[in-house]
Every structure is written in structure tokens, then in C-alpha cells.
Design a protein that fits this description.
Distance between the termini: 34 Å
Largest sheet: 4 strands, mixed
CATH class: Alpha Beta
Order of helices and strands: EHEHEHEHEHEHHEH
Helix content: 40-55%
Strand content: 15-25%
CATH architecture: Alpha-Beta Complex
CATH superfamily: Spore Coat Polysaccharide Biosynthesis Protein SpsA, Chain A
Low-confidence stretches: none
Length: about 230
């Protein structure tokens, strides 16, 4: 399992422990966290393979480093979950079974939102779903922003993904589809935690929405070429 980590000191250990209850190997990639986050990553090094990056390069850089580490260790697939504890690890067997049933597929989690979900996040995801439907086809990627996935490692590394920060989950999914990867979409619960519960968000409304707009502008133009070549 791959856990990209950036400044989630209150939740990382529980995510690693929850993963290890179901899978034998966890790779944590710490993306230049501040001292508390870096200490949390170092604290789980006795039970996880910890990769330390410095300085902060973005979630995409962390995930790509994790995929390369998984390749080096001979893994064919990597389950990605975020370090913030939002993903429901009880559904992990469903994701693993889906990957086993179709090994070449990108298995994408589709969040089932509850009352804790910020309205801005829900609306933002609907906008991203619209654009990705345009870029790869309706319903191909159920949720382009959700980070609970199973990646075929070789396909992920060779995807040509360029977005190394907030747009990573979207960019790599679109590019893998363009390169012929099938997709499987699995509904799964998502929980949002208050700061007092250890919840941390790194989403910045203006900055990251502008970045996603720029990303989709480029992907849309490239999607026109992709459709012509099909």
C-alpha cells in the first residue's frame, strides 16, 4: 500500500496500522513535512517502508516516488490511500479483489459523501467529473479527485503524468485512460475530520481551483487529439 504524506501527524499512524491489519507491506512517502509531520513519518518506520522527500514537491511527486519504490521492490500493483484518514480501509478487500479480477485496470474509488463533507468540495468534484467526462468519456473515471485507488504500477510510472501537486489524481487517471488502461469504479465511504480530531486539509480554494482550471484546459485540448487518433 502507498500512503503519500504531508503534514498529517495526527492521523498517519492510524492509517498505517489500519492498512497493516489487512496488507503486509506499506510504503509511506513523506513529502517534506514540517517537523511534526516528519517525526510522525519517522515514527512508523519500524513497520513501514518510509521514503523521505525534501522539500515539499507535491502529492504527485510523492506518489510517483512511491510507485518507483514499489517497482524496485517487485510489486505489480499499489493501493493508494491518503494519510488524512478520510478513506474507509474497511473497503480495502473490495479494491484488492477488483484489481485481481482485472489486473490491467485502474481501480478508482468513488466517494459516498455524508453530512461531514464540505459543500465546496462536493461542488468542486462535480465540476471535475464534468470535465473528465469530456476528456475521456462519460462515466469512465467515476471521481477524478479521489485518492483511494489501485494502480498497476508499471502503467502508473509510464503514464506521462505531469501534474505533481493538487491535480495529480486527475491528470494520471486521464493519461492512463488515454494509454489504454481500463477503469473500475467502486463506491466507498469518505469521512471528513475536524482539526480537533486530527483532520488537516491542504486544499486552497482559490489557488487550487485555478490550478485545476489550467490543468483541465490543457487536458481538454489534448483530448481532442486523443479522439482523432482513436
Amino acid at each position: 500500500m502507498l500512503v503519500p504524506h504531508y503534514d498529517n501527524p495526527g492521523t498517519l499512524a492510524s492509517v498505517v496500522d489500519g492498512a497493516l491489519a489487512q496488507v503486509p507491506d506499506v510504503i509511506v512517502v513523506d513529502d517534506g513535512s514540517a517537523p511534526p509531520g516528519r517525526a510522525a513519518a519517522e515514527a512508523v518506520a519500524d513497520r513501514a517502508d518510509v521514503v523521505l522527500l525534501s522539500p515539499n514537491q507535491g502529492k504527485g511527486a510523492a506518489c510517483m516516488a512511491g510507485f518507483r519504490r514499489a517497482q524496485e521492490r517487485g510489486f505489480t500493483h499499489a493501493v493508494q490511500v491518503d494519510a488524512d484518514g478520510q478513506h474507509d480501509l474497511a473497503d480495502l478487500p473490495l479494491f484488492v479483489d477488483a484489481a485481481r479480477s482485472q489486473p490491467t485496470a485502474l481501480v478508482c474509488g468513488v466517494p459516498i459523501f455524508d453530512a461531514s463533507a464540505p459543500k465546496g468540495r462536493v461542488i468542486g468534484r462535480k465540476i471535475s467529473v464534468f470535465w473528465v467526462d469530456v476528456e475521456v468519456g462519460r462515466g469512465v473515471v467515476g471521481d477524478p479527485l479521489y485518492g483511494f485507488r489501485v494502480y498497476p504500477v508499471d502503467a502508473a510510472v509510464s503514464s506521462g503524468c505531469r501534474a505533481l501537486r493538487m491535480g495529480f489524481d486527475t491528470d494520471i487517471a486521464v493519461r492512463m485512460v488515454w494509454k489504454g488502461a481500463p477503469t473500475l469504479n467502486l463506491p466507498t465511504k469518505v469521512s471528513y475530520f475536524a482539526r480537533a480530531e486530527g483532520g488537516v486539509t491542504h486544499f486552497r480554494v482559490v489557488r487550487d481551483n485555478v490550478a485545476l482550471f489550467v490543468l483541465h484546459s490543457g487536458l481538454f485540448l489534448r483530448s481532442l487529439l486523443w479522439r482523432l487518433r482513436r
